Automatic annotation (TrEMBL):
Signal peptide: none annotated. It comes from Hydrogenophaga laconesensis. GO terms for molecular function: ATP binding; hydrolase activity. Its main location: membrane. SUPFAM superfamilies: P-loop containing nucleoside triphosphate hydrolases. This is Nitrate/nitrite transport system ATP-binding protein. PROSITE patterns: ABC_TRANSPORTER_1, ABC_TRANSPORTER_2. Transmembrane segments: none annotated. It comes from the Bacteria. Gene3D superfamilies: P-loop containing nucleotide triphosphate hydrolases (3.40.50.300). Belongs to the ABC transporter superfamily. Residues 5-235 form the ABC transporter domain. The lineage of its organism: Bacteria, Pseudomonadati, Pseudomonadota, Betaproteobacteria, Burkholderiales.
């Protein structure tokens, strides 16, 4: 085993003769940001759920830090597309709940300081005592991100966390996430449908193909290609499209999605 996260020959079949995907292997190093892109139904969420310990694979194994993933753990923070906040709790209480699960004996003063630090990190200090119903979609998603970071997980798993946001809010939160990830050197696995988002955030982009009927029968989906992002890590959203190599990278991924992702 080499990577901090190691996925070996993972497969998932709801129907034995038609696995959604098969033989998916990849590794993620500590501090690396990896995005996965593929058409709807190829199995991205299933893979993320297996990594989160919320689902089991039909074949293969996933290891984090040398141990097989066998169930949910506070060592992994998960952010879903829907914010999944508890509506009856304030921002502070939502995050506090997670922090207390991780460190049940943390003294009250430390708990307050810890929660406030992560709320401030996503720019939500003025809204700390508001309930989710009083927040915009972008703010709720920020709370989800703060909550995931607040348990200081060894790995962050993000399932299209910005999918439901408008373009402007999405851009702002992408920038915030990038800043926090760089600062904390967090290891991240993220699903996105947005090619530019992947190019902005990811060190490597995993391209996944869908299962399809071929001339010789059904071919399961799988990992078609791993694209290394060669753009400088200091890239920002504003200058992304001015960088040498950006269009080549973008065209390569878009070509994959248009021509290869649905039959390999
Ligand atoms: N419980 C289930 N029973 C049967 N089939 C399922 C079940 N859950 C998922 N699937 C199927 O498995 C496939 C992969 O689903 P998954 O949600 O992982 O795809 P995805 O790539 O994340 O899609 P999207 O981008 O639309 O979220 C889909 O074809 C889906 O219909």
């Amino acid at each position: 085993m080499t990577g901090f996260l190691q996925v070996e020959k993972l497969g998932k079949a709801y129907q034995a003769d038609k696995p959604v995907f098969a033989d998916v292997s990849f590794a993620i190093d500590k501090g690396e940001f990896v995005c996965i892109i593929g058409h709807s139904g190829c199995g991205k969420t299933t893979i993320l759920n297996v990594l989160a310990g919320l689902d089991t694979a039909s074949a293969g194994h996933a290891f984090m830090d040398g141990r097989e993933i066998a169930g949910p753990s506070l060592e992994r923070g998960v952010v879903f597309q829907g914010h999944a906040l508890m509506p009856w709790l304030t921002v502070r209480q939502n995050i506090e709940f997670a922090v207390k699960s991780r460190w049940p004996d943390m003294p009250r003063a430390d708990l307050n300081a810890h929660v406030e630090k992560f709320v401030a990190m996503v720019g939500l200090s003025p809204a700390i005592d508001k309930k989710p119903s009083q927040l915009s979609g972008g703010m709720k998603q920020r709370v989800g991100i703060a909550r995931a970071f607040s348990i200081q997980p060894k790995m962050l798993l993000l399932d299209e966390p910005f999918g439901a946001l408008d373009a402007l809010t999405r851009g702002t939160i992408q920038d915030e996430l990038m800043g926090i990830v760089r600062e904390t050197q967090q290891t991240v696995f993220m699903i996105t449908h947005d090619v530019d988002e992947a190019i902005l955030l990811a060190d490597r982009i995993l391209l996944m193909s869908n299962g399809s009927e071929g001339a010789n029968g059904y071919v399961p989906g799988g990992m078609a290609e791993v694209v290394v992002n060669t753009l400088p890590r200091s890239r920002t959203r504003a200058q992304l499209h001015h960088l040498d190599g950006y269009y080549d990278l973008r065209n390569h991924i878009v070509d994959f999605l248009v021509t290869r992702a649905k039959a390999h």
